[in-house]
Amino acid sequence: MQKKVAVVFDSAGTLLHMYRVAKDAGTGMILEDIQSTLLVARKPHRALVIVNADLEEVSYCDPKLTLHGLIKQYDIKLDISCASRPFELEEVYGIIEKSDVCVSDVNDVVSHVRGHCPDIFYLAAGIIVDAQDYMIPYVLSTAGKMYSDTPAAIATLQDMGVDVFIASGDGYNNLEKLAMSIGIPMSFVHGVATTRDKERIVRELQEEYDSVVMVGDGMNDILALRAADVGILTVQQGDERPDVLRRSADVVVGNILEVATVAKSLLNSETLENHDQWPVFRS
Predict the structure, then answer these.
(1) pLDDT, average across residues 139-144
(2) Are 48 and 40 in contact (CB under 8 A)?
(3) What are this entry's molecular-function GO terms (predicted)?
(4) Which of 57, 87, 99, 233 could lock onto 83 through a cystine, CB 3.0 to 4.6 A?
(5) How far apart, in whole angstroms, are the C-alpha atoms of residue 270 and residue 3?
(6) Which candidate, 154, 188, 192, places its Cα nearest to that of 172?
(7) Strands 77-83 and 122-130
């Protein structure tokens, strides 16, 4: 009997090629091609927060309006995407209230991304909060476009009978557009998923499936990579990945299409111990 296999994908950097920038709130410098999860992981009391605002509308706001004022005036929802320790939104709002980060800071990073990333699939803004220093050290913006092989990779897995899920720290608005574009039902999409949420999702799926594969590219995927029956680290984004992340994966691939090779082996009832022979680049 063919095994039941589920493949769980992160989105940013895995299904989508990302361009990310950060503005150092202290110096005003724009930092290009940053890894937002690493900025969080540098210190033990940081969180990456999604600002679910209409960025076109924000561009017309008073540039001197504080982020706290913007959130209050437009009733903007915040989500915690990942954190280096447990965080509550109440704590995030308290830090924002004391910060002098304003609309101009948000517009600066969004404008920079728009100017440097053509063919944007989606655009988002966020902040990093630091509870130890009680401040916002960085204002962020990120844009993504689908890898050219993403639709084919998902279609190949689905044609094989594999159930495909998304577990991502991104918000549901952006994920809905992505899921619709590649034929993944929203019931299989888990948005605003923290590092521990992703691990929990993998473990819950393991109760329903014979094998669960996690495909990710960042530090916020590390627990899910370790928990999965097969953890696949993708490096197609092109930037360096920490050694601890590489060691947490069973397989490292340079192209998302290679995920199907792993899934095919599992469907054909090959044991997990045989994964050294899979024709993909090993970490």
Answers:
(1) 94
(2) yes
(3) copper ion binding; hydrolase activity; P-type divalent copper transporter activity
(4) 87
(5) 10
(6) 192
(7) unpaired
Q: Is the pLDDT of residue 199 over 50?
A: yes
Q: Residue 143 has which token pair?
A: 């844009």
Task: Quote the tokens at residue 177.
Answer: 């557009």
Cβ–Cβ < 8 Å for 258, 280: yes
Residue with tokens 């709130």: 25
**Predicted pLDDT at 117:** 79
3-state secondary structure of 210: coil
| Separation between Cα atoms, residue 26 and residue 147, nearest integer Å | 34
Using 50, 70 and 90 to split pLDDT, how confident is the model at 276?
low
Provide the greatest CA pair distance for the chain: 64
String of DSSP letters for 250-276:
SEEESSGGGHHHHHHHHHTT--GGGGG
Instruction: Give the relative orientation of helices 150-159 and 172-182 as an angle to the nearest 10 degrees.
Output: 70
Q: Which two tokens stand for residue 87?
A: 């965080």
Interacting residues of 118 by C-beta distance below 8 A, sequence separation 6+: none
Residue 274 in this model has a pLDDT that exceeds 80 = no
Q: Which among 122, 182, 127, 157 is positioned nearest to 232, based on CA atoms?
A: 157
Sign (positive or negative) of CA dihedral 151, 157, 161, 165: negative
Most confident region among 136-140, 217-221, 233-237, 270-274 by mean pLDDT: 136-140
Categorize the per-residue pLDDT at 116 as very low, low, confident or very high, splitting at 50, 70 and 90. Answer: confident
Residue 231 has pLDDT above 70, yes or no: yes
For residues 39 and 138, is the Cβ–Cβ distance under 8 A? yes
Report which secondary-structure segment, H or E, holds 208: none
Please tell me the distance from the alpha carbon of residue 36 to that of residue 50, in angstroms, as a whole number.
11
Q: Name the token pair of 148.
A: 């050219």
